Amino acid sequence: MKQYFSFFKMSMSKGLQYRIAALAGVATQFFFGFTFIMIFEAFYRSSNTPQPISIEQLIQFVWLQQSFLLFVMLWFRDMEIFDKITTGNIAYELCRPTDIYSYWYARLLAQRLSGALLRCFPILIITAFLPAPYGLSFPPTIVHFILFIITLTLGLIIIVAISMLIYISVFYTLSPTGSLLIVSVLGEFLSGLIIPVPLMPPMLKKIVYFFPFRYTSDLPFRIYVGNIDINEATISIFIQLAWIFILIMFGKWWIKRALKKVVVQGG
Amino acid sequence: MKLYIKYILINFKSQLEYKTSFILLSIGQFFVPFLVFVSMYMLFKRFNSLDGWSLYEVALCYSIMHMAFSLSECFARGFDSFSSLIKTGSFDRLLVRPQSTVLQVLGSKFEFTRIGRLTQSILVLIYALSNLAISWNIFKVLTLIFMILSGSLIFTGIFILGATLCFWTIEGLEIINVFTDGGREIAQYPLNIYKSWVKKFFTFVIPFSTVNYIPLMSILDKNTYSQVLAMFIPIIGMLFIIPCLIIWNFGIKHYKSTGS
Fold this sequence. Notes:
Chain A is built from 12 helices and no strands. By secondary structure, chain A is mainly alpha-helical.
């Protein structure tokens, strides 16, 4: 366990070096946040029927999404791992007396965490001071807040477990870009990053609830804004735990299989 | 021009060498905007209209902007990935050749996988046009064509500005995405749904409104401008590329090689 923790620390301090990039990222996310909010506002202006999520809740939802983008985004990828697999440097990795799944997992987790830490606080702080309808306020109760923290953490564990599967698939395909693009776009759609889950048609909502993706972003953010009540939130935590178990078990089994027949590519 | 066509052919052949990767990437490029359009469709099903615009009208706007964007991403990709030319020092090689730098950077890379995005926007365009009752005439057809051309020239201009920044920063900056991807995100909806500072910025600084607002209204008979006048408005937008090229040439004068 200790060695994985130091892998984690190493990647973490490396990630924290990129401060200027983070600053540019913050500005970009503000811009996109405002764009989405303006588009949603225009839609809400045009219709009088009450919606499953209010515009005030939706605005907070957008800001949370922008702050924790690196927690929920699927395409955040580590080119080094891809290169290791395609160039054959994976052989060195295999010589180490560590479990490769846990090693990569720690590394991916740290990258997301360091990136998000640099970006989320500036966005959260600034949006907290924005005037009334556009600002970020506190969740309805302290229980909502605690549940938000729990589900967000579990969601992060899920998203890294999913992205591990993408890395393992490279052992078979060798060229990551094409298949990766399709998987990550579908995943983002199913997690409600392109259109928020409450605004989807009922049929699609049912499908979305069937996949693990929405448990990474949709669930924690909607708990925060008070769109999901405490009962449903508690049940969802167990579903999250089940997904974590399934995804990690499957990942470990799959990587073992892939490594058994791995052919080191030259070099 | 002959040289440019040669650049295109060489790039095309080299990309076709990796067939599976090419096809998968094109399919991916199809799906990214496709899901954005599906979301737009679902929002319209829920809210019915958007500040007086119908789904088909916005779909027309969307398809024009995405077509412009994919054309510009395909042909001006060299500027988009320009930072790698600077970082490796390959740009020095371009400078000693007896051809203009703009042509050579344009020729350095084409991204033909954008055919996926282009196909998607053409399908949306057909979908929009078959559902809209527009009384077509020659001016409107020309307006539509000019809108697409002008849009791609504006995007190209932004790519050039982003590349010019690399002369000073060496590293490419994420912030330029605000104007390319962000500009596309914003301009896929008619500009009048936004707050006035956004409208002003995308009219006077980056002239997207000459593409997706005034001529669009005219095609849909939503305003009273004469159709001949509306046809020339996208052409004004095209002029945006001129200051971009001037800034580019200014940047080259300040270029210091990274060595290596």
